[in-house]
Amino acid sequence: MYRTHTCGELRLADKGAKTTLAGWVQTVRKFGAITFVDLRDRYGITQLLFGEELNKQLEENPPGREFVLQAAGTVNERSNKNPNIPTGDIEILVSSFTILSKSSVPPFTIQDDTDGGDDLRMKYRYLDLRRNEVKKNLELRYAVNRAARSYLHGQNFIEVETPYLIKSTPEGARDFVVPSRMNPGQFYALPQSPQTFKQLLMISGYDRYYQIVKCFRDEDLRADRQPEFTQIDCEMAFVEQEDVLNMFEGMVKHIFKEVKGIEYNEAVPRMTWEDAMWNYGNDKPDIRFDMKVTNLVFSKQMFPNKSTVLPEEMFAIPPWGGGGAEAVLAIAVPGCADYTRKQTDELTEWVKRPQIGMKGLVFIKCNTGGSYKSSVDKFYSEDKLKTIAEAAGTKAGDLVLILAGPEERTRKAISELRLEMAERLDLRKKDEFKPVWVLDFPLFEYDEEGNRWVARHHPFTAPKPSQIETMISNNPAIENTAEYVKHPYANIKANAYDMVLNGNEIGGGSIRIYQRELQEKMFAALGMDKEEQQHKFGFLLGAFEYGAPPHGGIAFGFDRLCAILGGSESIRDFIAFPKNNAVRDMMLDAPSTIDEKQLEELQIKLDLRG
Amino acid sequence: MYRTHTCGELRLADKGAKTTLAGWVQTVRKFGAITFVDLRDRYGITQLLFGEELNKQLEENPPGREFVLQAAGTVNERSNKNPNIPTGDIEILVSSFTILSKSSVPPFTIQDDTDGGDDLRMKYRYLDLRRNEVKKNLELRYAVNRAARSYLHGQNFIEVETPYLIKSTPEGARDFVVPSRMNPGQFYALPQSPQTFKQLLMISGYDRYYQIVKCFRDEDLRADRQPEFTQIDCEMAFVEQEDVLNMFEGMVKHIFKEVKGIEYNEAVPRMTWEDAMWNYGNDKPDIRFDMKVTNLVFSKQMFPNKSTVLPEEMFAIPPWGGGGAEAVLAIAVPGCADYTRKQTDELTEWVKRPQIGMKGLVFIKCNTGGSYKSSVDKFYSEDKLKTIAEAAGTKAGDLVLILAGPEERTRKAISELRLEMAERLDLRKKDEFKPVWVLDFPLFEYDEEGNRWVARHHPFTAPKPSQIETMISNNPAIENTAEYVKHPYANIKANAYDMVLNGNEIGGGSIRIYQRELQEKMFAALGMDKEEQQHKFGFLLGAFEYGAPPHGGIAFGFDRLCAILGGSESIRDFIAFPKNNAVRDMMLDAPSTIDEKQLEELQIKLDLRG
Questions:
Q1: Which A residues 329-388 touch B at CB under 8 Å?
Q2: A220, exposed or middle or buried, with CB in 10 Å at 0-12, 13-18, 19+?
Q3: φ/ψ (deg, to 5) at A561
């Protein structure tokens, strides 16, 4: 061993002890005849003191930033203590040292606030990983991994490894495929998830399965997605939705406790998908703050059971498009009535950006004095403004922001605006964790292009037990495309659930279909004929013939969960060797061309289009 | 939840309790008006008793083998107890039941001794996994996983996930490659191991890394190999060989204790590669039994420092090819002097099989009476036979078996024969675990075809510290191919180590090169020019420029380790969803053809050779 102690270990109690340390040179400071070196390793920083007698040797072999140094000496009390680090009371009086390895000047500083840009840090990821910020993230990731394992093990789950070279059955996202040399013309696929395997394990009787496992999706460029990502993948047999929810909110609470020291003992709130869309404009509501959406006008098709708070005619005037917009949605932003013209103009520009896509923004200031001021003063009396503002649940001092337009776009926009305003008001606290279950999703979405149903979650999700009959006894074909919402399938709710944390979906799952007839009906609804069903999922349909237990499960996005627990929105910071947005590993320079010989052996050829 | 208890849980103490169980029907036995059903789940088997009053319902819905049944009732003391199972004192007096799922007749019996052949069991792997034998293997695998993790965590190792989509840099085995849709014409490779990543993590300062991780090798057909396999992959910084050996024999002992309840407290024995070849004929000796090889004649080139026990002229006679064989190697098999002619003939046929490839077998029987009888009586007097037998370390009653031929083949053959005889004598006990470190491997092997050196372990393994200078100061080019053994590189020993358990290599590793100059020399010795070095490993050479610490590590073959601990020679039994010898998943029917559209998107074409 090149060391007797780590650089984070020695204290005043060790005074006088002989020690040998090894690590990286963080800084070198010369004061006349003596030299101080801060030596860094995974565990901390210890100050080395080189006395006059080592001067000659230091001059011959001057250690520089990021050199790897081995130093032997005695633990000494520091005259000038540093209370900011645990080793700050001591220093090592060096008696001898060896430079184990030299370093060129790093392309960026190895410090918490680095001067390195993203590309540089990705290329020299091995240096970026030395920074304390990044190290903390990977340590947190490991802690979450351990906490999840210890909880699941305690609950009698068993980890079973499922294969990586499987069969290509693309549904939704594209598969990465792997040409087989031994079976020319055939390909394996990398798993998008171990979904069918974990279901087979339930059929095999393993009853509580988990795996922390890499999954792969060949998707187009999307910010903060990675082609390979990690899931905490779980499945249980002989359970209903309630059992799965209880089990896995237990896991999340355990992780909160173990990793963040947070005691979260109450039940995780639950919300239907419809209520999430109604109150927050999306299905992954950030409930760290309130600021719920007020539905002034909305699509009756989407919310047949909801009613308006104000007469709809109030909004059939020019600001809302004259004849009335499909949706008019408001939020009341607390304490912002004093926004200046410049600020409201800026917000207007913000909602008009292509990513948001609104035509404009209407506001009502609920002044603390009790008066109302609005961008649509000329269409509404102050009384009417007050009526609208009160409908939006304002208090004096609030700023009501109102968007109008087509239902889907407007709802998405008000949701974005809500998050943006919360961000500006610092209501999205990084150290506050508010999970919520979102339930009762629609089982199907309608795909206009293909005039067919697509599975909102995936084709293995069961409908609510009460709706199985509806699903089996109706023909999935949509005859009148304009009125697809009237098809009985449009109203089938899934036995599915998402766990949302601070506005991010961190986990999703469902109770699964375990009856062959129902699974075949599902595949048929998705436009798969018998032959395709057999080719892609014959093994699963076959397995249902031999005693399949009722089962369900969930998968957590491990990278995302770690990022949120680490107070970051970017998963890339929590992955040791991530790929960039062009799906490249900048450090390896991968993907890359391969040898002609490799292609020949695989019996494939490039077929490049221009 | 469909159950209140599992099928392995209830005891006599629960007598009178209400319970609901769910599981699979193992057997149905009717006795007049009552019916017994053995219900099975992951935890055990519980007997259900259906009384007369349920007869009608049973007749309407008769449960069959492997049906999934839910049964509610009361815990009852059995009149006819079964001491062989933990639940054998009780039965459930069923009050109501539901068939959750029916089953067709399984294609083979779900029992410890199944009637299913390999192919059938692979195709219906989800049924095979129900068998107790297979379940036990997966449970053991999980236990080994947990024991390894707990040990490594306790030693301050951190798990870091490394990427699966990396760069193709084939060395030795072939890479599986993955075409990149986003970067047409370019490919990722699946990792053969995370070798370079774990070295980068050391350079990043993570200092103790582990990962239980899938690796991939596109190899030709070999028995009991899988294209994807699992490693316990580890690396440490600031260590020398001794540190790594101590750390990881600690891990193996911990696994022995946790998984098998075995207290193995002594030091794991160590053996040089040369001694392993000398005494056992191969570099993964099974030391559960002795029966060492006696080197009567051997290649001086391979063992320049060893001397014969008998004058070599004794073997320059017809039985050894007249002029003398390159190697004459013997083992003394205890207690087999009374082998019949039929038995020695059969052994002779055994060594003549193509897999062994010997021309014949010579034996000497050391009869208990003190006489000697041999297949080469006419060439040797009884005195000489005695001399040879004594040289082979025999006791009265032993059978000396002698093979002669070319060094490499004969050594391999005597090693195989040694294992075979041990097998016949039941000396390879499945419940005895004898690890041994094999050390001091040659760094290079000579590749005749390419007239170049190949790395015996891998190109990142360091030579012994004392031989670094030899390596750097000599030109690797081999001028006189016939005398390659005289090249200084032929004598360089690697700073590498294998852990061998019961005749199987379960782990291997090395101290790594961490100096750019030495690494470049190594790449050059393997025939890689500067450009290729830069293209394939530029990132690693670059990383060595920024302060690389001395480091080393090891990787354990997780599948193999589990198999041996489970008393099996086949890793396939310890993998949930293995592939067959044609690298196919029989259950999924993968690999398979993919859609033309997928090929188009990837911009590749098939290029099948007839």
A1: none
A2: exposed
A3: -55, -45
Distance from CA of A580 to the nearest CA of B (A): 12
pLDDT for the residue A455: 92
Q: What span, in angstroms and rounded, lies between the C-alpha atoms of A585 and A591?
A: 7
If one counts every other C-beta atom within 10 angstroms of the C-beta of residue B52, the result is 10
In the DSSP assignment, the letter for residue A483 is G
With cut-offs at 50, 70 and 90, classify the pLDDT of residue B317.
confident
- Contact residues, A window 384-413, toward B, CB-based 8 Å cutoff: none
What is the CB-side half-sphere exposure of residue A344 using CA atoms within 13 A? Answer: 21
CATH of domain A289-428: 3.30.1360.30
Residue A537 one-letter amino acid: F
Query: pLDDT digit string (tens) for B44-80?
Result: 999 999 999 998 999 999 999 999 999 999 999 999 9
- Of the CATH numbers 3.30.930.10, 3.40.50.150, 3.40.50.720, 1.20.272.10, which one belongs to the domain with range B133-264+556-598? 3.30.930.10
Whether the bond between A106 and the residue before it is cis, its omega within 30 degrees of 0, is no
* Residue recorded with tokens 């539905």: A295
**CATH 3.30.1360.30 domain locations along chain A:** 289-428
- Chain B CA closest to residue A585: B166
Residue carrying the six token digits 């779900």: B110
Contact assessment for residue B360 and residue B375, using Cβ atoms and an 8 Å cutoff:
no
Contacts of residue A387, defined as CB under 8 A and 6 or more positions apart, other chains included, come to A310, A314
Q: CB within 8 A of A310, min separation 6: which ones?
A: A296, A387, A388, A391
Task: Give the residue from A42, A183, A238 with the most B CB atoms within 10 Å of its CB, the best one to mutate.
Answer: A238
Closest alpha carbon within chain B to A106: B546
What phi and psi, each to the nearest 5 degrees, are found at residue B409? -65, -40
Q: What contacts B223, CB < 8 A, 6 or more positions away? A: B581
Q: What's the helix, strand, coil split of chain A in %, to 5?
A: 30, 25, 40
> Distance from B63 to chain A by nearest Cα, in Å?
11
Q: In angstroms, rounded to a whole number, what is the distance separating the alpha carbons of residues B143 and B258?
A: 8
pTM more than 0.90:
yes
Q: State ipTM.
A: 0.95
Residue with tokens 């589990």: B562
Show residues of chain B in contact with A130, CB under 8 Å. 204-205
B324 pLDDT band, cuts 50/70/90, is: confident
Residue with tokens 């279901």: A199
DSSP structural state of residue B462? P
List where CATH 2.40.50.140 sits in chain A: 12-101
Q: Among residues 154-183 of chain B, which lie with CB inside 8 Å of chain A?
A: 158-168, 170, 174-183
**Looking at beta carbons, which residues of chain A come within 8 Å of B608?**
184-185, 603
**pLDDT at position B409, please?**
95
CATH class of the domain at A12-101:
mainly beta
Look at residue B306 and give its three-state secondary structure: coil
Provide the residue type at A466 as one letter: S
Q: What is the mean pLDDT of residues B122-147?
A: 96
SS (H, E, C) A373-418: EECCCCCCCHHHHHHHHHHCCCCCCCEEEEEEECHHHHHHHHHHHH
